[in-house]
Amino acid sequence: MVIRNAADGMAAELAHHRRWTDELAAAGIPLLTVNGEMIRRKGAGGARPDAPFLSDAVEVAQGALPEDHPIALLRAFLRVLAERDYMAGMWVPGKDRLSTSLLSTHFAAGTLSSDRARVETEAAERAWHRANPGQARTVAGKSFGAFKGRVRYRPGFLTTFSRYEDDLRPLPITPEMRRRVEGWRDGCTGIPMPDAAMRELKATGWINFSLRQLAASYAVQLLGLPPFEVGTVLAEMFDDYEPGITWLQVAINDGRVNQDRGPRILNPVKQGRDLDPDESYVRAWLPELASLPAGFAHEPWLHPASPLPPPLVDHLTAARAARAAWGAKSSVLGARPVHETPSFDFGERNAPR
């Protein structure tokens, strides 16, 4: 059975729902459409009904919810949001699990809607500002708006996905490339930061957004893995897999989206030093680094007694090759219609390069 979450991404749904339904029916696969807590929007301009949520109003209003109910989890997070360094901590391995809501799996599954998150956040924001007058411009005061901004990204991601999904096709893959895909998936490529990210993802089903950018960039640009393979691996590993977010990350690195901005080629060593300056993250997920003295965990090959095998690629050489290849690729892609992303910046403005 395929379960489709219809809470967000209306443009994508309208464009592809009939094709999805027909293809699944032809294959004899049942399709169940759910839309989280939302009642289907109807009317001119997608007008909302008077009571937009399916959840029992009295139960929700009185807070008579189980502790693990997604709305209860959201409210618990909002009560401490202003005390956390949300805007900075969301990017940093280790701090990310303390500063963020960790509710993305509920969003992806449709058990928590973006609209519910917005409504609850606005209520918590108003209450906090009443209790803390004059603090609107502080880091704490801005944290509510930052969280709403991240929630608001979801519909834009999903709508953009509908515009390029058919561009990505599986291609024949050599045995050597298959081994490289497996090494990347298992976090065994020899470069600690992306390896640590993939090991965390494999163990927990979640990594933060900056690590997702790094994982996709490293795979496509430096390891030269086929985009379809990269997206398929990530789709299998993310507990909060959302096609419009995961495949968009892959397409940006493959140049099919935002090609006018050029390639996003991240330096995995610099990313490691920026995001994990004390080496605690890579050492936690790559215990084989324990024998290395401080200062070598992000470039273990520089130590004569490195416990890791040599990296699959030299990251600097691979980056130069990727930039050179981009020139040839961009001339081909330039002949195609440019797929523009929504009007937000994917967090890159604040993400260390």
Structure write-up:
The chain is mainly α. It has helices at 10-26, 57-61, 70-80, 86-89, 96-99, 104-109, 114-131, 139-161, 175-185, 192-204, 209-222, 227-237, 243-254, 268-275, 280-285, 315-333, and strands spanning 2-5, 31-34. A two-stranded parallel ribbon has the order 1-2. Helix 12 packs antiparallel against helix 13 (243-254). The longest helix is centred in the middle third of the chain and has 23 residues, at 139-161.
Secondary structure elements and pairings:
Elements: E1 2-5, H1 10-26, E2 31-34, H2 57-61, H3 70-80, H4 86-89, H5 96-99, H6 104-109, H7 114-131, H8 139-161, H9 175-185, H10 192-204, H11 209-222, H12 227-237, H13 243-254, H14 268-275, H15 280-285, H16 315-333
Parallel strand pairs: 1-2
Helix pairs in contact: 1-8, 3-7, 7-8, 8-13, 11-13, 12-13
In short:
By secondary structure, this protein is mainly alpha-helical. Helices cover 52% and strands 2% of the residues.
